[in-house]
Amino acid sequence: MVAVELVDAPDAVGRVGLRLARFAEGRAEANARLLTPLTEAAEAHGATPGQVALAWVRQRADVWGLPVVPIPGTKKVHRLEENAASVDVCPTGPELDALDAIAAAVEGDRYPDMTLTSAGPRAQALM
Q1: CA distance 127 to 117
Q2: What is the pLDDT along the chain (127 residues), one digit of tens a residue?
Q3: Rounded distance, CA 19 to CA 5, Å?
Q4: 3 state DSSP class of 32
Q5: Dihedral pair phi/psi, residue 110, rounded to 5°
Q6: DSSP-assigned letter for residue 110
Q7: 3-state SS class at 116
Q8: Distance in angstroms (rounded) separating the CA atoms of residues 127 and 122
């Protein structure tokens, strides 16, 4: 879990990560506190937090009525196997509700606002 590691070792983010809104101004710590329901669900299912997160993403198909296929990236075979094993993880209704609440409570945007990036220096003067 990245956020948990960030709280324990802030240098793990590096300079680039600190510019991301989710990791700036104490947000990493606030977001890490949201992970309790995720880690509890993982323990209850004998799974990793990542497997529970992937199971939650797959469950979104039922919520949205659309096919949803999570595509996690990895460079390690053991992570690929771990991700594939997430199909056997079935969070309960209350666990899914708790995970939904986490998604709604995350502080900071995932990516910086790039609205005026391609507009050039003239756009910066308007800001």
Answers
A1: 12
A2: 344 444 444 454 555 555 666 677 777 888 888 889 999 999 999 999 999 999 999 998 888 888 888 888 889 999 999 999 999 999 999 999 999 998 888 877 766 666 656 655 555 555 5
A3: 17
A4: helix
A5: -70, -40
A6: S
A7: coil
A8: 9
**CA distance linking residue 112 with residue 18, whole number of Å:** 11
114's tokens: 């790039």
Q: Which residues of 79-111 are buried (b: 16+ CB within 10 A; e: fewer)?
A: eeebbeebeebebeeebbebbeebeeeebbeee
Are the C-beta atoms of residues 22 and 106 closer than 8 Å to each other? yes
DSSP three-state, residue 20 = coil
3-state per-residue secondary structure call for 38-73: HHHHHHHHCCCHHHHHHHHHHHHHHHHCCCCCCCCC
Domain ranges for the chain, please list them. 1-33, 36-107
Q: Are 51 and 82 in contact (CB under 8 A)?
A: yes
Q: Quick count: other Cβ atoms within 10 Å of Cβ 2?
A: 13
